[in-house]
Amino acid sequence: MQVLQACASLTQAAELLRLDWDSVQRILDRAVERGLARRSTAEVVYVGLDEKSFGRGQNYVSVMTDLKQPRVLEVVEDRTSEAAVALWKSLPETQLAKVSAASMDMGANFSSATRQVVPHAKIVHDRFHVAQLLNEAVDKVRREEHRRLLEQGDESLKHTKFLWLQGAAVEGERR
Predict the structure, then answer these.
(1) Most CB atoms closer than 10 Å: which of 7, 37, 104, 136?
(2) CATH code where residue 89 lies
(3) How many angstroms separate the CA atoms of 166 and 132, rounded?
(4) For 32-79, what is the HEC assignment?
(5) Per-residue pLDDT for 60 more than 80?
(6) Which class for 50: exposed (0-12), middle (13-18), buried (19 or more C-beta within 10 A)?
């Protein structure tokens, strides 16, 4: 397994181990089975839901993680509402009952699935996405003000975009 973990692909691992690709895939499948069988059913209180792209950016998986003891709980193909529901349904009822909060981006898929399957869990939007929205709002206001001031012949906001956006980021870090 250490060779498989260190390699970038199954093909590379097969070459190093001098095995055919199918044999390496079977080794990986058995390791995953063993890992899933040993998976802890300890209480999961804080859950993270996120999407990851791979390949050329057009293929997505949805990932559920335990935020308290960092570990991946489940991975499913796609980033649809159905995929998000499947993530939640992969947990036993006893674990679902103990989830108190879920961190996610601001997309509707994860939020609606969370409200549907674990309505008692609080939804928390991760700070990266909140900061991104804040920066977009600051930039929109800056552009509107710059345009308004230019119409009056005032160029005081010229070349200040970086200062405004960096200032918002620094202010967010201070709090």
Answers:
(1) 104
(2) 3.30.420.10
(3) 12
(4) HHHHHHHCCCCCCCEEEEEEEEECCCCEEEEEEEECCCCEEEEEEECC
(5) yes
(6) middle
